[in-house]
Amino acid sequence: MPIRVVTLNLEQGQKRWEARRPLIAEEIGRLKPDLIAFNEVSVPLQSARVLRNDVSRNGLEYNLLQQTRVNGLSKVEAEALLTRFTVIESANLDY
After folding, report:
1. Beta carbons of 33 and 6 less than 8 angstroms apart
2. Contact predicate 29/53, CB 8 Å
3. pTM recorded for the entire structure
4. Residue 34 falls inside a structural domain
């Protein structure tokens, strides 16, 4: 079974986030990936959650898995995965 995977660095600093956000959501809608891996997710802006909600308005449903960074970065940065597959279990490994 073929799957489509997309990866994207959201740039935690959120350079021009409001201008980039609709472009990213549009491209996700065009590609319709099965898995999307994000790094440098902004925790304060909830950028992965916002993108999931944006694309769901266009009929694409994704489950969100997100893990914050450790120590002082946990309040500002995370890694995230959007998946169209059913999530059975998840676990975190701090490295």
Report:
1. yes
2. no
3. 0.88
4. yes
Q: Take residue 83 and report the two structure tokens written for it.
A: 């998946």
How would DSSP label each residue in the chain? ----EEEEE--TT-TTHHHHHHHHHHHHHHH--SEEEEEEEETTTTHHHHHHHHHHTTT---EEEEEEPSGGGGGTEEEEEEESSPP--------
Domain that holds residue 22: 5-83
Residue 77 lies in a domain: yes
In the block, residue with structure tokens 């959501």:
25
**CATH code (residue 39):** 3.30.110
> What stretches in the chain show pLDDT beneath 50?
none
